[in-house]
Amino acid sequence: MSEKRKVKMGMIGGGQGAFIGQVHRIAAAMDSEIELVCGAFSSDPEKSILSGKALYLDPSRCYPDFNQMLQGEAALPASERMEFVAIVTPNHLHYEAAKCCLEAGFHVLCDKPATFSLKEAIALKNVVHESGKLFGLTHTYLGYPMVKRAKELVAQGELGTIRKIMVEYQQGWLSQKEDEDSKQAAWRLDPAKAGISCCMGDIGVHAANLAEYVSGEKITALCADLGTVVDGRRLDDDGAVFLRFSNKIRGTLLASQIAIGEENNLTLRLYGDKASLHWQQEEPNTLIIKRHNASSTIERSGIGEGSSFVTDAMRVPAGHPEGYIEAFANLYRDFAHNVKISRNGTLTASKFVPGIEDALRGMAFIEHVVAADRSDTKWHDLVTTHSPFKDIT
């Protein structure tokens, strides 16, 4: 049995003015299983320390940078030091931070995409394996109860043989030139910080991950058309991708950040030879199953009996929305569970959290989509062993 005490967390990034850092902290705290004990919250040393103090952390554990955090925490008794690090920085900082944390003996839970490039993701996989530490990736939408129910239905054969997969992620928050002034937009549109893609790297990769998770199939090849709609941008803000999955399944993926009026419209449709299903993130408690020449079925979160695979992700009674924060918290809770198990010296992760293989597939998807868009060749095989580019760090 692992020692019964809270899991201690450190954070890199997510300081004052950063939206996603607070989301991570709320999600981590929701189950009272995790305690934030330290952090290096900004690349600005003074801002980093001030951010930690604003969170009422011990001033001695508000560090000016993550290297000093790793040194300071490693010097503490095992019962006091952090056990894992949440990395919530812009993409270009993920790899170095994750590598240093793992090599220093700390587990890592990282925002997606895991790295700046596929080359870095391949290198990080080696670091993870050599470190003997846990690595998790916050593909948030996999934490929703009805997403798990959808996966369960597919696995049980309720849809029959899958024929077609359609997934889209539509937003409108970057539809205007002036939208670029926000901190959240600035780094996502900067190739030096975001990488080779904005829209596909930021939200398209979520859609691809969701489609693979629910269907249980892998994307094997793709054909892409990306667009930079707003003048002056250096990265894509809109795009469409034709997909080929294993078992000869065809699919489409649409992603946009210039679709005026759209908020956070992530939608998944799977079509089998017996039935189809439909799930939409903006109505997360609802899963619709449609059958040939028969009435549709609407399943609602919390209604009726269900398997533990689904009900373990439910937190509130029926009629209360299982939202984004709750889905995020499910990942944190399950990662904390795995950390507790690791205290006994084993890395047997009994709870599912997206990991390094998801990191590899995510970066492979991003780079092959961009490569396909730039190429005259129609179809590109999606591989995780090497990058289609030679000049990306």
Can you put this structure into words, describing what you see?
With 393 residues, the chain is an alpha/beta fold. The protein has two domains: 7-141 and 328-355, Rossmann fold, CATH 3.40.50; 145-316, Dihydrodipicolinate Reductase, domain 2 (2-Layer Sandwich). It has helices spanning 19-29, 45-54, 66-74, 94-103, 118-131, 145-155, 183-188, 191-194, 199-215, 308-311, 324-342, 356-374; strands at residues 7-12, 34-40, 84-87, 107-110, 135-137, 162-170, 219-227, 238-245, 250-256, 265-272, 275-280, 286-291, 297-300, 380-381. The strands form two sheets. A nine-stranded mixed β-sheet has the order 13-12-11-10-6-9-8-7-14. A five-stranded parallel β-sheet has the order 2-1-3-4-5, sandwiched between helices. The model has no long low-confidence stretch (mean pLDDT 95).
